[in-house]
Amino acid sequence: MALSLFVSTMSALRAWIKAVSPTRESIVTAGTLAIVFGATYLAAYFTRSELLLRGSDAATIVRTIGWVVLLKVIVFYSRGICHRPLRSIRFEDLSVLVRATTTCLLVLVAINYYFTTWQLGWIQIPRTVLLLDWAFTLLAVGGLQAAARSIYEELMPDAPVGHQRSALIIDASPQGQAIAAKLMAAKRGGYFISGLLDDDPTFQGSRTSVARVIGGIDHVAACAQRLRVTDVIIRQGSVFGRRMRRICETCAAIRVRVMIAESQGEGEEIEVRVRDVELRDLVTHPDPMPVEHRQAVASWVCGETVMVTGAGGSIGADICRKLVLLKAARILLVERSECSLFDLHGELEERISSDDAGRIGLTPCLVDIHDSERMEEIFREYRPGIVIHAAAYKHVPMLQGHPAQAIENNILATAGLADLAEAHGVKTFVALSTDKAVNPTGVMGASKLVAERFLQALGEGSATKFVVVRFGNVLGSSGTIVPIFTRLLVRRQPIVVTHPEVARSFLTSTDAARLVMFAGAVAESSETYALDMGEPVRIVELVKSLAFVMRVP
Predict the structure, then answer these.
(1) CA distance 128 to 132
(2) How far apart are CA 277 and CA 551, in angstroms?
(3) Rounded distance, CA 130 to CA 193, Å?
């Protein structure tokens, strides 16, 4: 009988722990601490009087216990101790407990002093009681937290083993709430979510199943300090560019770590990965593909055989990754670098789920596009419906000294590939170009302009759509300023910027891949597109962002 009663009581307690909301937990914590404070205050008096309480002491207790307990609750609340359940104790919380308890002692000593000055001795608290109360509070609250965690881990063996970190989540949308819930439920490496931040006025002040929406995104520093969080976690895609950089700067100043939460799926099936901030997070802009055209892109690719030349390059590889997500029937990976092709092929095979393994074909083609005979064989065997031509020479200083190679690769190879595409009935041929083809001043820009003109002429009256997409700097692409700056920062060498206001626009390779595919999907005839490169970033800010990501002081 006693055993069954014990088991039912434990089951009820487990159910209550699971059901209690974060807001209610804070109230429970504050109420529990109030009881503890009252008990330690009484214990201090009884200890001082050796368990023989005098009448005057009893009268003083009655007159003072209420405001003493209230004062201590307020101090502990302001220190953030009430914002988390008692079981979430961490080692660093001990120093916070000492500071909060000492603050209470100092405030009570000051109040005592003024009571004496105002001749209000009838409510003066003996100094020994204050010292004893300080010691008992430390022992009682610290012991209570340790006991609560021990009991919680015993009752809930599958629950998170003490949240080692606490966090604010930026984004209170259903997706952000699902991420927060997943992080709270993680058995290892879990977080205690102290609150959500969102600029949407409909969310302000609302309570979710995980935590309360406590303010806008611009309040991140103040909220992080007030709640003593260790991390600020931003849902990927919810904050961009300059605002992301500002959040990272303010959080770095108060020593709060900024992380990015990537997610797949929805609701209870969501999978979350928390990673460090990367440079692309600091300079990227909102999803460049309009929502209304995403389905058009998916329909354009789904079920098609797609050839990607220069597949091992930064943009070519991201295009291939998108094609896997969009479930192209077959992807022809055309690349002349053996190592790049091997790495990309292995990565894409890992990305293809077991359900799609039989529906998405990956064909690595180790070939130089100059080899017209081999390219002819590939076209004849696989008959691609879409060709995305990303193979080209692109480095301005290098091509300036090698004009013959620029002509051979950027003009003649492109022309040969386009002729093959038309001859084998390719529906759409998308060629990547550069903004340097506009009024070119060097060999690279001129070679790309000639290739563009050839494709435009070939597209007149052809059943194949020849689409040209121009863009500028791609973040992190080989030979660009980012790898150069990275090497200098690693070596702790100075980076010289000619003028503090010099700015450049950047696209991540992911954004470029999306926009290239968008252009190919919506083009109704042979056209030339220039990509919106987004907001220019000052080079000085870019260097600071890169140093932040690399944790270089």
Answers:
(1) 6
(2) 11
(3) 35
Q: Which domains does the chain have, with CATH numbers?
A: 13-155 (no CATH), 165-277 (3.40.50.720), 291-472+508-534 (3.40.50.720)
For range 148-172, the mean pLDDT: 66
Strand partners, 474: 507
Tell me whether strands 257-264 and 271-276 are parallel, antiparallel or unpaired.
Answer: antiparallel
- Cβ-count burial of 124 within 10 angstroms (0-12 exposed, 13-18 middle, 19+ buried)? middle
pLDDT digits (tens, 9 = 90+) for 409-458: 999 999 999 999 999 999 999 999 988 888 888 898 899 999 999 999 99
- pLDDT score of 222 more than 50: yes
Length of the chain counted residue by residue? 553
CA dist 461 and 146 (Å) reads 79
* Residue 135: HSE in the Cβ half-sphere, 13 Å Cα cutoff: 10
The residue whose two tokens read 């969501």 is 270
Q: Is the pTM of this model over 0.85?
A: no
Strands (E), 216-325: 231-235, 257-264, 271-276, 305-309
DSSP output for 392-421: ----HHHHHT-HHHHIIIIIIHHHHHHHHH
How far is the C-alpha of 163 from the C-alpha of 229, rounded, in Å? 12
Got the DSSP string for 303-329? Answer: T-EEEEETTTSHHHHHHHHHHHHTT-S
Residue 503 β-bridge partners: 538
* Residue 513 confidence (pLDDT): 87
Whether residue 373 contacts residue 414, with contact meaning beta carbons closer than 8 Å, is answered with no
Alpha helices in 118-162 (DSSP H): 127-155
pLDDT tens digits along 28-57: 777 888 888 888 888 888 887 776 777 677
pLDDT given at position 18: 43
Confidence band (pLDDT; 50, 70, 90) for 151? low
